[in-house]
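# nightly structure sweep
# worker-07 picked up a monomer target from the shared queue
# config: single-sequence mode, recycle default, output format = structure tokens
# input follows
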Amino acid sequence: MLKHRGFPGRLPGTDFQFTIRRANPKGASPITRRERFRDRRPPDRRADLGFMAALWAQFGTEPFERGNLDAGRLSWLFGREVLPYDDPFDPECYDARLIIDEAAARAAFPEAFGEDWA
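# output follows
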């Protein structure tokens, strides 16, 4: 499992996890598309924004390995702002590659692309 050095482990000041510490010996948790409803709590929306900003800062438009990125947090963006890069895509593989759909990400999280996001 690739560990993304320099990637934040969680949203600062919260318990919203962005990375995992070690690989699960039983296999990676699957990445599945989760629906984001309009009535989600503001802290949850802030975590999505923070994760998208961290992904953009770390990878930009380049494909990246799932590695130690949290499957639950990826699932909130998967299928919309974060897309599978490999065909066929294995959602239960730590080596699976993903890519940011820049247009969709900018539309959903415009704040994540500004220099003043913190």
